[in-house]
Amino acid sequence: MAEILAIKPAAVEGPVVAQLDKGVLRLMLANPPANALSLAVMAALTAELERAKADKAVRVIVLSAAGKVFCAGHDLKEMTARRTDADHGKAFFAETFAACATLMQAIVRHPLPVIAEVDGLATAAGLQLVASCDLAIASHEATFCTPGVNIGLFCSTPMVALSRNVSRKHAMEMLLTGETIDAATAKEFGLVNRVVPREYLNQIVTKYAQTIASKSSLVVKTGKEAFYAQAEMGLADAYAYTGRIMVENMLARDAEEGIGAFIGKRKPEWKDE
Predict the structure, then answer these.
(1) What is the reported pLDDT for 88?
(2) pLDDT (tens digit, 9 = 90+) per residue, 99-131?
(3) Half-sphere exposure of 91 (CA within 13 A, CB side)
(4) Which helix (H) or strand (E) holds 212?
(5) Residue 171, Ramachandran bin (φ over 0: left; ψ between -120 and 50: alpha; else beta)
(6) What angle, rounded to 10 degrees, do the helices at 90-108 and 156-163 form?
(7) 3-state class (DSSP) for residue 243
(8) How many Å apart are CA 113 and CA 133, to the nearest integer?
(9) Would you call the peptide bond into 33 cis, given omega within 30 degrees of 0 as the criterion?
(10) What does pTM read for this prediction?
């Protein structure tokens, strides 16, 4: 079992705290009490994701949160305050949802794997954040919901990520009822990979992250990109596309090294090329 990572304050304080350890970059939401996705939080998180692309020391990204709430979705107080604008907030609302779409796509399109470490409530755009990650590991105490229908605002944008992770019937159940599901149900639905005791959550996520970080970053990047690309294609196009990807992958140095190491019964030495 991996050792627990001690999350220490970053040198520069902000709504997102970043810490790099052994190839694993932890991005922790630190916008108490609800870690709401205000424009500032979304901008900070998007910026950290962009910076990680250029840092060769980063091999895996973990999204976590401080406090008892993972993420309560959009900052409704911030949005409501803009109803006094001349356009009743229309421009600000559009800016907010556009920033959210940019953030979610930045996670999906990111060359590095992104793991959600979920403890506490993930609701609306907070659930969207979890669903957008490549993997999600939750504590037994984690809960999830898309409650927009309860307040007159259907969770249409969270629906995009949710419906790409769970079955249509399960997605519609959550969207139409607005009811909260527990972590076990979230796993049954396919929203999270594993549910673990809270006291082991950090350890298990770290173990997953370090396991992935030990692989060739070139191969992981190739695989992640291909996974999401083929998922949007028809069957024949998907096979044609992934066939080309496999050929390119076979010609990479790390494939030659990895296969050679397997045949020679030795540990591979990755060059990430």
Answers:
(1) 96
(2) 999 999 999 999 999 999 999 999 999 999 999
(3) 4
(4) helix 198-213
(5) alpha
(6) 10
(7) helix
(8) 8
(9) yes
(10) 0.92
Position 273 confidence tier, pLDDT thresholds 50, 70, 90: confident
Residue with tokens 């399109």: 109
7 within 8 A of 28, measured Cβ to Cβ: yes
Q: Are 19 and 26 in contact (CB under 8 A)?
A: yes
**137-198-120 Cα angle (round to 5):** 70
- In 3D space, the residue among 151, 99, 95 whose CA is nearest the CA of residue 128 turns out to be 99
For residue 5, pLDDT over 90 is answered with no
Q: Are 67 and 32 in contact, with CB atoms under 8 Å apart?
A: yes
What letter represents residue 58's amino acid? V
Token pair in block for residue 107: 């996670």
Rounded distance, CA 94 to CA 29, Å? 23
User: CA-to-CA distance for 73 and 37, rounded, in angstroms?
Assistant: 6
Structure tokens at 204: 């298990």
Upper half-sphere CA count for residue 94 (Cβ side, 13 Å): 5
115, β-bridge pairs: 62, 135
pLDDT at 135: 98
Q: Note the pLDDT of residue 101.
A: 97
Query: Hey, how many other C-beta atoms are within 10 angstroms of the C-beta on 246?
Result: 13
pLDDT in tens, 200-244: 999 999 999 999 999 999 999 999 999 999 999 999 999 999 999
Task: Identify the sign of the CA torsion 82, 83, 87, 89.
Answer: positive
Nearest-10 Cα torsion for 268, 50, 116, 19: 80
- From residue 177, how far is each of 143, 241, 253, 257 by CA, in Å? 15, 39, 51, 52
Q: How far, in Å, are 24, 43, 60 from residue 112 at the CA level?
A: 10, 19, 6
- Please give the Cα distance from 267 to 228 (Å, whole number): 29
Per-residue CA distances from 66 to 15, 106, 178 (Å):
10, 22, 25
